[in-house]
Each structure stands twice: as C-alpha cells, then as structure tokens.
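Same chain as my last thread, 130 residues:
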Amino acid sequence: MRSLMILAVVLVSACWLAQNSNSDNTPTQARPCVGEHPPQPCLVRPVAISQPAPDYSDEGREKKVEGEVYLDFVVGLDGKTHDVRVTRSLGSGLDEKSIDAVRQWTFKPGTVDGKPVAVKLRGSVSFHLQ
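reply #2:
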C-alpha cells in the first residue's frame, strides 16, 4: 500500500514587501533586516507558527500527480494569510487544496520599527505519493 506524504514549505526568498498602515493588509515596499548593518527602518520577516498540510485531492491521487504548487500570499497584520494566489499550478484539484491549506497557516506578523506590517510572501506546497 502506498503511503501519502505532503510537505508544505514557505519560501522566504520573496519576503520583500511590507505595509506601513495599521488598518489594512495592502503591502508596500520595505527592505529586509539583513546583514551586520541593516537599513533603518527595516522589515523583520514573519515567522510561521502553524502550517497545516493540505489534503490530497481524489483526482490528484487517482492520476498520481506529484509536484509543487507555488503560491503568493500576504501575511496580514493579524498573522493570517490573505490574497492567496497560485503562481504555478499542478491542476487535478491540488491547486484548490493548496489554497485551502495556506489560508489556514498562521504567522507571527512581520514588523517595521516594532509595529506589525503586512508582508507579501511566496510559498509552495509539495505533493508526493509514496
């Protein structure tokens, strides 16, 4: 019998936008806090708290589809994900399962000068049958 393995990963490489408003989740530009002397003010990136894995779709399992779904999303001031969009699709119902899972992810929000900001991230959800 084949077992099912699903891996959900957030790729931090695209953590490039931050929001300076206290009221909405629209990201704007801010530089990440990296290096010995980071620019000021700078963005402290969000930290994942919970990333539940998605379910495999019936169609994806039947067709034995494997691979990664890439998504862009915003981590809001509340630490929840918003504006989840697929940027690279697998089809067979796996895109929808990925969106559903990412909408359940929670983060410690990113900050600029100690204040929560909305940050745009790029992530991926992997589907592999074993």
